[in-house]
Amino acid sequence: MRYPKLLKRGDTIGVCAPSGGVGGEVCLKRLDNAIENVKALGYRLIETASVRNSSKCVSADSATRAEEFMSLYENPEVAAIIPPWGGEFLMDMLPLLDFEKLSSLPAKWVCGYSDISTLTFSLTLMCDIATIHGSNLMNMGYARIHAADLRVFDIMSKSVTEQESWDFWGGYTSWEDITQDIYKLDKPSVWRSLQGDERICFKGRMIGGCMDTLCKLLGTRYAPVEAFLDKYRNDGFIWTLESCEMSAADIYRSLWQMRECGWFRYCSGIIIGRPEGYSDTQDFTLSDALSQGLGSLNIPVIYDADIGHIPPQIQIVNGSMGIVEYNNGKAYIRQSLI
């Protein structure tokens, strides 16, 4: 596994939009605010030409998006790449990326969630590059950067990091008013064990992302999971998965498909993030989906975790070695770049 050089103050962060671009007065102000907030932390930022475009759910045509991403990755001054947010169709630029060149270049951080999972997952599997399933830049565009999103800079700057589950979770305070804090966290955060265990500990190489987009890569050359699992089989694996806009039935179908494709071989444990836009399917619930999708694996499954679309989120390094300790609804995650 190739780990990027640790980030330090004064480094340059590149901003491109490999999926959705930023349009509209409110969102553009939020983007500007995010850039200023990150600059105030001591980093430089550069952005590519299409970041502030938005049409047909993307920032530009697939060739342009691929070219802009490659330009940042090939730029020796850029230490990390953080897109503004996800979107819908990042997958259509994957055939236009030069993965051979990416594999030969010095590794650099790529961070994001939602549709950005399409990119980070493929980079880790195809190029052995550690990536981060974590905060997007637009999460940082309010009055101040929340502690959950600040963590991503800590993650990129240390070889060993520790995170604990949050005390509360919630939603956005306001989509339009960037003069206040971004999140309203008012619901107790209680992680749950599918098997009902009070205490669990497992370790392995971490991998995962947003199921909505990852499952679209099944069967394509951009998800060589079998080869990745075989290469690191002695480490074991921790899958960290979350969803957006998926019902209980959708989640079960996706987990079934992943399981039948062998994605959970050598797995020592699975963490499922708190789902956004979720609904039961008749009387079929989330616990039903997880039990039927994962129960036969006979490995620990923790769900309602602080991972993914619902804030605040824990930052997960794809490719890192992780240790997870679960104790009565709370969790501790240690990640090492080894």
Describe the structure.
The N and C termini lie close together (8 Å). The strands form 3 sheets. The protein has an 8-stranded mixed β-sheet. Helix content is 27%, strand content 25%. It folds into 2 domains: 148 residues, Rossmann fold (3-Layer(aba) Sandwich); 169 residues, Glucose Oxidase, domain 1 (3-Layer(bba) Sandwich), CATH 3.50.30.60. The mean pLDDT is 97. It is α/β, with parallel strands linked by helices and 338 residues long. It has 9 helices and 16 strands.
Largest sheet, spatial ordering of strands: 6-16-15-10-11-12-13-9
The helix count comes to 9
Helix residue percentage: 25-40%
CATH level-1 class of the largest domain: Alpha Beta
Question: What name does CATH use for the topology of the largest domain?
Answer: Glucose Oxidase, domain 1
Q: Name the structural class.
A: alpha/beta
Write down the secondary-structure element order: EHEHEHEHEHEEEEEHHEHEHEEEE
**Uncertain residue segments:** none
Compute the number of structural domains. 2
Average per-residue pLDDT, rounded, comes to 97
Largest sheet properties: 8 strands, mixed
Q: Estimate what percentage of residues fall within beta strands.
A: 15-25%
Annotation, overall tally of beta strands: 16
